[in-house]
Amino acid sequence: MSGIPGPVGITAYGAYVPMTRLPLSLIGGRPARDGGPEKAVADYDEDAVTMAVTAAVDCLTGVDRSAVDALYFASTTYPLREKQGAALVAKALDLRRDVATQDHAGSLRAGTAALESALHAVAAGAHRLVLVVASDCRMGAPRGALEAKLGDGAVAFLVGGAPIARFEAQAAVADELQDVWRIEGEPFTHTWEDRFAVQEGYTPNLVAAVRALFGRSGRAPQDFAKAALYAPDARSLGGVVRQLGLKPEQIQDGLFGRLGNTGTPYALMLLAQALETARPGDRLLVASYGDGAHALAFETTSAIEALPPRRGVSWHLARHRPLASYDTYLRARGLDPKEWESGADLGLSATIRFRERDADIAFLAARCTSCGLLHFPKQRVCYRCFEKDAWEPFRLSDQQGRLLSYTFDYFFPASEPPTIMVMTEVAGCRVQVQMANIRPDDVALDMPVEYVFRKIHDAGGKPNYFWKASPIQ
Amino acid sequence: MSESIRDKVAVVGVGACQFGENWDQSREDMIVDAAYEAYADAGIDDPQRRIEAVFAGAVYPREGSAEIAEALKLFGKPVSLVSDYCQTGTDAFRFGVFAVACGMYDTVLVVGFDKPKDRGVSGPSVNFDRVRGLPATPAGWFSLCAARYFQTFGAGREDLARIAVKNHHNGTLAPKSMLKKEITVEEALSARIISWPFGLYDCAAQSDGAAACVLTRADLAKTFRDDPVLVKAVSIAVAEHPQRDPEFDFLGWKPTQYAAKDAYAQAGISEPFRQLDVVQLHDCFTLTELLSYEDLGLCKKGEAKEHVAAGTFELTGELPVNTDGGLKTFGHPTGATGVRMIYENALQLQGRAGPRQVQGASLALSHNIGGPPTTCGIAILGRD
């Protein structure tokens, strides 16, 4: 193996922020006000996996998916302790069967760690193109100190040659202290007293890592156009910025009171937002924190000007739906008491899911190679020309559809009933799905839709995924 | 078709248990009530000797054919069990008709039954055994035609409400219906939404029930009773899945269109609206009734709402539909429903329908449509 010729770095980025927001005033029982502080919260049908898929789809805009050699998935909230998340994300993205997949977990530094691993893998020639996805959906205990600070989101980067942002250097420090943690089986993240966590954990570690980066890269604070820095809150960020000798205009907005601290993807989402407006030759640094700190430096290239348009962080932040009540938030996160606790049943048949994974996870239809008619799900015999077993796969997840009909179901469990069920037409075939990101009053015949990966239910005590339609804004 | 089924088989006895939330009745209780009423209606007092075969229908059977044989103590003879969505009862009837028509048996029993009220929930079951196509409830399946149909033909929830009001009224006149309550259009429109545009009154109730009939060869019919009813047609058709069919237009359901064409050909009917005197059609939801008027050819596509407004299908109208209150007031114990409609049509043809009698009825159609929907069953009965 030998490294690919020329510089290595980020070749594309994408991001995802859920449309639903919790106005922070609702936590204290006060009414929401326009423009007040809020945080992004995953809807009832979203989790770290669905958000990762959506961010990755954004990142893959204009990219031939068969060129992706590896997928690294970083999260502290992937729902399963044993069973890989990256393989699931790769299937939902319809990546190659021989894609190399890795999960990175256990620390909020997992995102930058995955990114660094990808950069090294490409530099070493192990892979030509690596997709790195970081996603988290962390919860603070209801009405606890952390709840208002944490937000949900995801980010994705492609790492390869001919980058839009050339990798310059990285530096890390490790530390051992119990400031932020979550025990196996616990739904909520815990912290020790925040003054301890900031004074002995966050601040000295982040400063040490970034100073080490300055040393390794030979750059000075003033050389950077933007610094995308993890921070538990605005005040703590201010302290780090002063110690590092950075100026406020060099700091990528931490989105406090808008996004919330998204954990593993947080600093990387700020990096993605910096890339949205970066000019060729800008130096960017990103630093994450968790049992130590990790910093990486990049320099943007002229290739950034040719990057196809994408949604990134800003588009998703602007798409906005405040939850109506704190109860709605509790229901969306499954924190409301239920009359019937979900039983310890086996859940969906693993063998049926195995046979149907191309349709359910990869969202592949089948095109009749005899007459061209598209079918979802795949049939044995064509509806139109009755040819038998003449099919080629056709990916629906990156197609746009049209809404043919709809109904609003008040029985299916949802945090905010009704569940919107729609019949869509996509590339000439019919697909019946639920609809996300819309209220019933806004549903209209013939409206254009795209498809998003979502959790359908928790049968068997585990998430079960399929695609939903989402309005195209 | 090589040979028509018309006039070869007669219905000589009908029976039904009381439909409702039969908390104190088992399936055995309901099967026995329905079958023994049909026996008595046919003048049969020795069923173990006279009934040569049983054709049963149930969507939630428990012990296969043994459940029916055990209940009726009919042993040493064939009992077949059909299970195929809402046309289950009509299909069991069809098998019975064909078995007699082919000469294999002289006299057979058809019985349809179901008991959904042991499940512990009042509404539809919430399905968690898959991820695609959810919520998979009948209300969700049938309501998918509403938005497009409404937009195309200018119909709306008020038209549906009028159908619910009609069927609720008819149900007050049927002794064995579950709901005997008049409602108003305003009540129907203001009820809670189940699956838009269906409010509570747009949906058939959940109920327990069983219905039965005795079939025999047409040439033997008068040895049972003086006024036998003859089978003029019985048809089942399976259509393209409306959630996959690339040509599905959300304006009508192909299963009914297919089955009606076949049934009318069997019965020699060319003008169904003029020739039929009474119709029981599958009002699982009010929209199903609205679209089925058209799919059965009782009026042109898009014109159903005008007939609803004019009262065409009311008891006093030109062609009374769902004279006993339909699924709306009997509820829909799935396997029983098709046979319950045959029970009502036999009473109508024999002038035994009391205050809901359609005067001089001589040709009656019953219709079920089921699944997403994919399948339809139609039976046409006539006087001698």
What does this structure look like?
The complex is a heterodimer of chains A (473) and B (384). With 473 residues, chain A is an alpha+beta fold. Chain A has 11 helices and 22 strands. Chain A has a 9-stranded mixed sheet, sandwiched between helices. Chain A has a 5-stranded antiparallel sheet with strand order 20-19-18-21-22. Chain A has a 3-stranded mixed sheet with strand order 3-2-14. In chain A, a hairpin with a 2-residue loop joins strand 19 (419-426) and strand 20 (429-434). Chain A is globular. The model of chain A has no long low-confidence stretch (mean pLDDT 95). Chain B is of the alpha/beta class. A 9-stranded mixed sheet of chain B has the order 3-2-4-7-1-8-11-10-9, with helices on both faces. Chain B has a two-stranded antiparallel ribbon with strand order 5-6. The longest helix of chain B is centred in the N-terminal third of the chain and has 16 residues, at 27-42. Chain B is globular. The two termini of chain B are 23 Å apart.
Jot down its keywords:
heterodimer, A: about 475 residues, alpha+beta, nine-stranded mixed sheet, five-stranded antiparallel sheet, 22 strands, globular, B: about 375 residues, alpha/beta, two-stranded antiparallel ribbon, about 35% helix, about 20% strand
